[in-house]
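Is this the right way to post structure tokens for a design question? Let me know if I should format differently. Anyway, here goes:
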């Protein structure tokens, strides 16, 4: 198979890692790796640009279903034989589905690369999709959904996504619902799989002690599907909805509060300012929400903010759990911190520098993990089309000014713009 190769010379090397190399096969599959010769292991991920937002109405959860079935049985091995093959080498394999992609990944020793790679290619390219296995896995996923319904944070964030995105596919549950999972047929799975495995939407990423040419050789001999002849279905950007306010009653031990709003996405100029805003609001013990909700008012044990950036939008959430009698107070305290951030206590130089230091440390420490490196390579190439060197990421973070952060805070922290979900105990 023909391919073109290019070196990303601007990519940083640490721990004697070479620059990331990218190769595109003639059918469109992209291969990216970072060679780290002074480790004895590697992490490999097979990334596919299909996630829950790409599912059709009534078939929510179909990609997550396929992810499960890949480990159930292949055309050549049973579930037990597949698990034994990985574990005899001490390899750890798993997968996950998100709103925008699916990833099958493995961590293993470099000496076992060829065998481990063959197993990963087998489970992704040759799942049996046996009718009996489909029924077994259907019951397992339904139990997974039930377990999520026992987790307050799962419940409230699911409701929050519904409040923000309404009928848009970004509101789809990654696992699907009991109704949709119960109705998915083998034909549905085959159809979804045919749409999912487009070579131009597959990235294979490796970080560790594996030469790039060896990886390319293996991929070129296994991922031989023909070049896609049709364009993939384009994603529809969510439109801005009015703030919604939802109250639920559940048999939980605590009340729960979630404030959420839609933000710009991965390609926005304000991306790095948003990352810092999220840290200042609710990441770590020095964050404003932690200091207010937990330290000052004693209203909750768990309190944080969360930022998710998609290709065309994103979400910013503020969350805490509190005694049922205090959830309105907790909500008001959150709103008060947002108001202060804009009007009476804007972020100063010291607070901004502390947030930047957290990002810098996180980025640099992640380079010591082959799994984190692999994820940065795979996600970067799949979602953004390039690999951003870590120095460039840090430079962009360091370049954010107090004025820029103030503008982003004014855009997203005005109290009237938040949707809310309150869960009260029964």
């Amino acid at each position: 198979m023909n391919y073109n190769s290019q070196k990303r010379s601007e990519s940083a090397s640490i721990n004697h890692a070479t620059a990331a190399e990218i190769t595109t096969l003639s059918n469109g599959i992209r291969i990216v790796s970072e060679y780290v010769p002074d480790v004895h292991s590697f992490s490999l991920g097979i990334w596919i640009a299909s996630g829950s937002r790409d599912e059709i109405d009534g078939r929510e959860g179909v990609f997550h279903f396929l992810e499960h079935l890949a480990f159930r049985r292949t055309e050549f091995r049973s579930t037990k034989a597949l698990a034994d093959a990985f574990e005899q080498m001490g390899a750890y394999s798993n997968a996950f589905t998100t709103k925008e992609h699916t990833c099958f990944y493995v961590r293993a020793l470099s000496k076992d690369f060829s065998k481990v790679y063959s197993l990963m290619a087998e489970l992704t390219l040759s799942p049996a999709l046996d009718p009996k296995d489909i029924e077994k896995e259907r019951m397992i996923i339904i139990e997974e959904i039930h377990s999520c319904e026992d987790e307050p944070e799962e419940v409230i964030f699911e409701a929050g996504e519904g409040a923000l995105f309404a009928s848009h596919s970004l509101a789809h549950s990654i696992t699907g619902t009991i109704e949709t999972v119960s109705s998915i047929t083998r034909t549905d799975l085959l159809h979804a799989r045919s749409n999912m495995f487009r070579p131009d939407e597959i990235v294979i990423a490796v970080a560790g002690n594996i030469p790039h040419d060896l990886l390319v050789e293996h991929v070129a001999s296994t991922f031989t599907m023909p070049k896609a002849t049709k364009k993939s279905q384009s994603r529809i950007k969510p439109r801005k909805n009015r703030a919604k306010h939802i109250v639920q009653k559940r048999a939980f031990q605590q009340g729960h509060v979630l404030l959420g709003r839609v933000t710009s996405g991965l390609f926005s100029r304000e991306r790095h300012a948003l990352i810092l805003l999220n840290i200042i609001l609710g990441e770590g013990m020095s964050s404003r929400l932690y200091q207010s909700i937990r330290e000052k008012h004693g209203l909750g044990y768990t309190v944080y903010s969360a930022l998710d950036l998609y290709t065309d939008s994103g979400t910013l959430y503020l969350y805490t759990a509190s005694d049922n009698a205090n959830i309105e107070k907790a909500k008001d305290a959150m709103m008060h911190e947002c108001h202060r951030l804009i009007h009476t206590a804007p972020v100063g130089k010291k607070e901004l520098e502390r947030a930047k230091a957290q990002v810098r440390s996180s980025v640099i420490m992640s380079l010591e993990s082959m799994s984190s490196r692999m994820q940065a390579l795979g996600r970067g190439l799949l979602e953004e089309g390039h690999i951003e060197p870590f120095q460039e990421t840090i430079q962009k973070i360091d370049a954010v000014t107090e004025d820029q952060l103030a503008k982003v805070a004014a855009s997203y922290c005005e109290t009237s713009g938040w949707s809310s979900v309150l869960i009260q105990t029964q």
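Format looks fine. Someone answered above. Worth noting: Confidence is low (pLDDT under 50) at residues 1-15. The chain has 15 helices and twelve strands.
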